[in-house]
Amino acid sequence: MAVLDDIRPLGSQLERSYEVYVRGRLKFRVGQLVYVAFSIDKRTMGFAFPREERAALVASEPEKFAMPSTSDLRFHWVHADLAALDRAEARELVVDAWRMVVPQKLSRAYDLAHPMGPG
Hints:
The protein is an alpha+beta fold.
């Protein structure tokens, strides 16, 4: 089971990433792009994910993943139940979401510095 404390340090350590609170919700951004956001109760994590792949992700593990609200369907976004994720899986989702909003050179540099993944 993953919790916010498993993810928060990672989001703060990723290059160009910073945390903000918007209407009581913790979000991680690169520039103005949000790549991870948590519900107010911190049970759900929304994260950047390729739009064309999200239906398959949700269908593969509906106990873990859910489609975003109708108003957010236009974005590259999906939701996850933190309690259904293990720590490593949650951290991997955060890094993959971060990769969607940073230049490829930063993503490659992260891979070189972390050959075993986000851990």
